[in-house]
Every structure is written in C-alpha cells, then in structure tokens.
Amino acid sequence: RRERLLNELSLKLGSSLDLREVLDSACRRICSILDAGGCEIWARREAGVVECLAAWEDGEAVEEWRGRRLSLEDWAVTRLAIEGGETVAIASTADPRLGEEERAMMREWDQRSMLVTPLRARGRVLGTLEITQSGRDRVFTAEEAATAEACARQTALAIDNATLYERQADHARRLQALLVAGRAVTSSLNIQDVLASLVRSAATSLGFPEALIFEYHEEADAMTMRSVYEENPTVYEDLDKPYPLADYPSDRALLESDDVVVETISDPDLPADVRESMERHGEQTCLTVPLRSGASRLGMLTLVETAAERVFSEADLEFARGFGEQAAMAMHNAQLFENVKGMHLGNLRALSSALTAKDIYTIGHTARVAAYAVLLAAELGWNPRRIQLLEEATYLHDIGKIAVADRVLLKSGALTDEEWALMRQHPTISAEIIEALLDEEYVAGVRHHHERYDGTGYPDGLAGKDIPVVARLLCLVDSYDAMSSRRVYRPALTHEECIGELRSCSGSQFDPDMVEAFVRVLAHLDAQRAVLQAAAFEAAAAIDADDHAVLRRPQDVARAEYARILRSLRQTRRAHPEVEAMFTTAPAGELRSTIVVDSDEDDATAVPTGEVVFSDDLTLETFAGRRHDANVVVVNRWGTWIAAAAPIRAGDGAVAGAVTTCRQPGNGLPAGVLKSAVSDTFAEIMRTAAARQTRAEIESMTDALTGLYNHRRFHELLMETLSGERADEADIALLFCDIDHFKQLNDRHGHLVGDDVLRRVSRILTSSIRRGDVAARYGGDEFCLLLRGAGIDEAMEVAERVRERVDQLHVAAADSGEAGVSISIGVATLSERRDGQELLAGADRAMYAAKDGGRDRVVRADTLQEARPRLATQL
User: How confident is the model at residue 676 (pLDDT cuts 50, 70, 90)?
Assistant: First the structure.
C-alpha cells in the first residue's frame, strides 16, 4: 500500500510546477502514506531561521502556520535534522532532545510524537519534513522512517524544481513589467499616471512594500516627492512638497551618484542623518536609483524594505536600473509636453472655467457626450487614434457657449427669435476656438454638430451625407444626453421614450445607420446595468438602515456599524466580479449626497466617509424611492461609469440611503479610450473649474441646513416656471407648508432638535415630489413645493402624503424621550391665481387657515372664498 501511495505521490509531485500545489499535495499524501495526523514542511531561510511552507492537521491545511518563521536556536530537533542530515524520531514529549519551545508547541497542539526528516536535493538541505502524531505516543519504525525519507527526497526535488520554475517565472514577470512600464511611458503624456504605474511596478516586481519617485528642480535646487506606492497605504504629507537639498546633504549625494546605492540600517558607515531618517520611518533597507537624461539630473527612484535587511543580486540591481531609465524618460517627456501644453491650453483653461461656472449640468453633459461618442465610434469600427481625437473634440464641442449670455443658456421657458440667433452661434464659435488644436475633420464635426439629416439644422443647413461624419455622430449622442438627463425645468425622458425619440427622428434629425448602431450600444449598456442592478439590490438588502443612519463623519469608520456594512459590501462585490465600485450614500440636501461607506479594498483610493458630492439623477431618484428608468452613463470626478442603485430602506419603508454599483463601459473598446492623456487634461480642467465655481453657485441658491433651494432661488424658479408654463396653459400647483408649534419645540427641546426636525421634514418633502418639481425652504419653519403640470387633485394628494409622513415623524428629545411633529399645508393652483404673487399669497392664506382650523391639516385656497368673511369676523 505504501509503495502504491509513494508512486502516486511521485506522479503527483512530478506533474506540477506550482509550489503551493506541490506543498499541499505532499502534506496531504504523506499523512495518508504514514497514517499520521499532521505534516509540516519547513524551508531554510537566512542563517538560523526556518519558514513554514505548508502545514496540515487532521486532513485540513493550517493556514495560520503558513509563512511563520522560527529560530533554530529554539527549534532544537529541526536544527539537529538539518545540521546532522539524518532523520530524528521523537517518541514522546519527554524526549530530552526537544527544546522548551518545541515541547510547549507540541503540547498546545496535542502532538505526542514527531518524525523530522531533512529535505535534500542536489546536495543541499532545503529544510525539513516533519510528521506529527496527535493524541497518543507513537514509536516510528525503521520502515516508517525510511518511507518518510523517500517522501522527503521526492518532495525536496519537487520543491527545488518548483522553486527554480518560480525564479524563472519571476524573471519573466520582471521583464514583462519593464516592457509594460516602457509602453506606459510612450503611450501617455500624463506624468502622474505614468509615474504611479512605474513606482507600483518597480515595488511589486522587486518585492518591496514601498517605493517613491522624487523629482529634482534645478532652479530651486530642491526635490519633491512625485509618486509613492505603499503595500499598506498611509498618508504621505510630503507629496509634491519641495524640500531644499541644502538641508539634506545625503540626498544630494544620492542624486549625484553614478549608480544604484543600497543602504542598510546595520551599516556602521551609514551617515547619521540617513540613519535617523531610516529609524524614524522603520526602514531596514533602501535601494536608490538616480534618474538622469543625458547630463541632466531629474530625480531618483527609492525602494524601501521595512521587514528586514536585504541582499541583492546583480540581476536585481540591473532590474532596478531599468525602472530608473523608464522613470527618467517619463519625466523628460513630461517636461517637453508641459511646455507645449502650456502654450496651447492657457486660453482654454480660462474659457472652460468660465463656461462650466454657468450651469451645474454643463460638465456632466460634456463628459457623458464624450463617453457616448467613444462607445458609438467603437461600435462603428473606428480605430483607436481616431476615437481618441473624437473624444478630445467632444470635450470641447460646446465651448463656444462661453459667448452666450447666462439669461439665454439658463432660461427655462421658450427662447425668443433673438435668443435663438445667439444660441445658434455657439457651434461656429466652438470650431474657431479649437481650430488651432485639432485636425480639420474634428473642427468641422464640432462646427456642424447641430445640422439635421433633413437639412433643417444650423449653422449651414447641410443635409444627409454632406454633413461630416463626426458631426452626424455628435448630433446623435449630444441629443441623446439632452433627452435622457433632467434639467431644472423638465424631467428626463425614460429609456423607452428615448429609444422611441431616436427612431422617430431617424432620417429627419439623425443619420439612420448611426441610430441603429447607437441603439446596439445602448442595449449593451442596458445589459451591463442589469447585472449591476442585481448586485445593488443584493447589497442593499443586507444593510441595516439603523447602522447606516449613524455613519456620516470620517471618524465613524471606527464604529462597529461601519465594519458590518463594509464587510457586507465587500462580500457582495466579491460575489459579483463585474462590479468595479460599490458604495453607499445618504441624502445631504436637495442636490447633494454624502458618501457613507466605500467598498474599495484599497483604503488609499477609497472615498472617505462624510465626503459630500453632487447628486445625479440616479441618486436623486433612488432617494425618492423610485426606479431610475434611464439608460445613461454617470460621470463624476472619478471617471465615466455605468451605474445602478438600490434603496436602503428602514423598517417603515422609508429610504435611508442608497447602494450604488459601478463599472466602466465595455463594449469592446480599444485600450486607452475614455482615458486618453489629452482628454484627461481637458476634462480635468473642466472638472476642476466646475468643482470650484459650480459649488459656489450651488451654495448661493441652496439653504445650508436642509439643502433645499433657498428663498431667493425659489422666487426665481417660480417666475421662470410661470413664464414658461403659462404659454402652454399647463397646470401649476403651489403648496405652502409650516411646521406646527415649531417655536415651542425649539424652546422646550433645544435648537439642535429643531434643526434635526427641519432636516428630516425637508427629506420628506423631496421624497414626496416628482422629478422636475421644486422644494424650497421659504424661511424659518416654512417650506414651499412647486408642482409642475399638477392640478388641484394631484396637489391635494401630495399635500396629504406629506402631512401623513410628517405626522409619523418622531425625533429624539433629551427631556421627554421623543417629540412629535405635525405640519399645516395650504394648497393653491394657477387656475385660481393670475400671477406668481397671487399664487403664493393664496397658498399662504390657505396655510394660515389650516393652522387656525386646528393645525395638522391641509386646506385648499379655493375653499376660502365663502369661509373668508366668517374667518375675518372671528379674527
């Protein structure tokens, strides 16, 4: 039987070059051959140390032992087998050859006997094979010892072969890493991306936990840390912070060295300042490669080992030099590119900044249209270079709107003939702006992207195939984003409505062939979104809304609730590998939301808890408890995504937050599209401007406490709505809401409780209305809801829904445990009021009638005509 099992072991070990598979197979089969309870394989490391490569006990791998290191000073029997080259048999824990550490460990694991055999291959002792018996003393026979030695010989040879194979594979991986790094340098002009790729590849390929790249600035005679990689990320405060070399003589010596420099903490000749720095950062070994281009000193690449001192082969050093050369080339290319980019994009920065400050939708629209353009071009079979140029042109296709007044761009009603004439100039102006930056084909595409297939477009009235192909493509994707995204003055079309609009305009507004191709793109996006949606619902179902409600601040990551949600998100994400990002959010106002938990496995790239972002349509609809019936890409400062979301519901069914799942669009895109360096530059300019200037605009028109529109913005929207809707004779309803006894609530329970009530009532208001409706804090404890296209019956239904939800609201109060809340609402419609002021006054009078009638009720303005004399008499 043993001979048969030995043959099987030999065959198995000879059939694999995967070291872990070899080790596990050897342990499992050796236990069976010798009828033993446990088996361990230990490898010799540096002098006097052994490392556990595999451990099995009772038929199961003991993972906690794998990688454990022990000193031979405390492991006497193992040392005896290695140094003597002979098998050592231990019949019981009383054997005097056992060291105290060994004896204690055997007792902990209830191991009574042990057989230790050296692993010998090609004249070298690689380590030991240790067979253990638990639960009883056992005397191993000479035959069993011989069998163990036979197993050890086969295992040692397999380990040696697998190790040799891994070394060759590692060498191949390093060469591949150098090739990838070289391609990264030549394929991108984004220096930060290139350096991040290089520093990561250098560290992982050479097995370092940390790597840094420093750039030298000759004029200032200073260095800055440009990129850092950490296996266990921390925050480097010195990133991009210059430090003068006059204060760091050792760093100057490294910069000016002619070759790789290796520094170890035990080196007695180590300069004092270097030793102090290494000790402060817990560094055991530093390997530094100076970066040069010709005679110019550019910086240095430093690899850091914190676990133990290391010895490097010449192959290791040569490999490090190779990464140094790639980093130097990247820096040199970046300097050249910065000179060219600065010359051509200076004016573009100013123009883009001014444009994106006009409208919170502008930046999202531009990036979404670019994404659709890339996806459609890929579907049409365009080559990568052409797609990249298209993407760059798309980012700038509306930059001519810089010349159009805000009153025209942001007008919610119909444009006059004069205003239309101004608007129709923007394609021509855009083309003139980018003429010096892009090829003629793309300039023409931007100029004509508002031409229609039937010849009724502008600026030149081109028709059919006379319209440049880039323009036909941009016309289609630009229109799709407009119809599928909401605006302040109207809701977005649903997915089916968008498809219907595309098909109905095929041949009149759009190129029919492109319509069919884009419908295929949308179908592919929809299929990917369905997968994301399933994952979002699965994750949301596993989250306790009460846990989610207490997490809002960065320091909340230390709470048990955060750990539970994070664990749940990561488990769901691992079960759905197609999900590239998964996070939860909570409402933070009318147009904003708070990131609560990000499932990113890398803490350095995870979005921190408490970060406030602008809410897109998907988020707003999910918070409102509605399904987002749209097939769109989502754009934020982290990129372009396909996204889905699911509500996190409390026990009463209220939406407490949302789980969002994302992935980048696929559809067979060539490598690099949606990420090209030049378009990233343009996009970053626009995103930066939008983040800075749009934030100021949002804050100027929203209430800081509730996030709803403020008093001033509400009146602007009311006037815009009336001027736009009266022409269509559409119904408009206004709800004027006032929290009952709010002053007494503040006086009794404190203003913190009052503020909490205002925030929670505002969330009820926003979740009770539709897209396109307006919620605003009118002042103090008063709120207004403007319902577009709603008659008196619909308005009363909304008002009662709000009243009932507020009636169920209870807030924590320090003195009495909780405080109840109610609200009085007055409702008026445009049909009874001739203008905005009368509409507002009617709703206001109805609200006061509700309060005079006992509070916690809804009153219609049209019922006050007969009641007013009696009410006036009573007053």
Answer: very low
